[in-house]
Amino acid sequence: MPGIGSCVVNALSEWLELRIWQQEKEYFLRFVEGEPQAPLGLIGDTEVQRGTDISFLLSSSFFPDTVFNAAVIEQRLAELALLAPEVSVVFSDRR
Prior knowledge:
The protein is α+β, with helices and mostly antiparallel strands. It has helices at residues 4-11, 70-81, and strands spanning 13-22, 25-32, 35-36, 41-45, 50-58.
């Protein structure tokens, strides 16, 4: 069951892609404007044991100005990392 945070991000995004690695399998699900494009699909076997990757594009209808300050995001993630040291977060600014 998805968390409230991912549901909100999905609702406010043009698209959202979800990859899940669990029990040596990879799964994929894509949403467009909050609607799944297909059921959760099994991509295949993988050596990655577990993890989740969420990629999204914020909707310009909700966020007309999407200029982010990477330094602020990095600082906040560093603060959150202290609360959950076993979690790995990768922040990538691809602008």
